[in-house]
Amino acid sequence: MAFIAGLSGFGLIPQAVLQIPGSQRRLDRLIPLLGQCQYSFHDLSRVEMDTNRPKTPRFNMAFELGLAVAHATHVNREHRWYVFEAKQFRVLKSLSDINGTEPYIHDGRPTGILRELTNALARNEHKPTVAELKAIYRDVKRTAATLKRELATQTLFDARPFLDLVLAANVSARRHIASLR
């Protein structure tokens, strides 16, 4: 939720492959979506072991980062990709091929994510403060609880709740960030 709130505060519209319903393979939806986006944000702190047997690490985020790097290198040199991580030095150990890339370390906290977005997007025309982004985050958090109840879902990471949450975040951003009005 912090990424949705924070990106909205910069006037961006968060996108995710899960927002595209249909029977098409996830990868076949992901690649065109990546091509439509100026930026991609990859939180590698979510590379974790699932709890079901056999215990297996989830590599989707690292794989998507690889696709973004390839896209920026071979297809669209204007595409900007950013690596986020909760713990200092962990990504340099787990994914040493990106040594030389500065990951944005957020300490696993929403305020850290918002802070690091202000660093990653320092050149953006909109320059919200962390306090302004936190106000959007609070609104998004309230909306998330309402959406879960109204849509009878446990997750916000299905097409409808995700799209509704992004809309709510963008409405909140326009209310809290003067340059977005």
Concise structural overview:
The protein is mostly helical.
Q: Can you offer a commentary on this structure?
A:
- There is one protein chain.
- The chain has helices at residues 2-9, 26-36, 60-74, 90-94, 110-120, 130-150, 159-176, and strands spanning 39-43, 80-85, 104-105.
- It has one domain.
- With 181 residues, the chain is mostly helical.
- A three-stranded parallel β-sheet has the order 1-2-3, with helices on both faces.
- The model has no long low-confidence stretch (mean pLDDT 94).
- Strand 1, helix 3 and strand 2 form a beta-alpha-beta unit.
- Helices cover 49% and strands 7% of the residues.
- The chain is globular, with a radius of gyration of 16 Å.
Number of domains: 1
**Number of helical stretches of at least 4 residues:** 7
First-to-last CA distance: 22 Å
Beta-strand portion reads 5-15%
Major beta-sheet overview: 3 strands, parallel
SSE layout and pairing:
Blueprint: H1 2-9, H2 26-36, E1 39-43, H3 60-74, E2 80-85, H4 90-94, E3 104-105, H5 110-120, H6 130-150, H7 159-176
Write a concise keyword list for the protein shown above.
single chain, 181 residues, mainly alpha, 7 helices
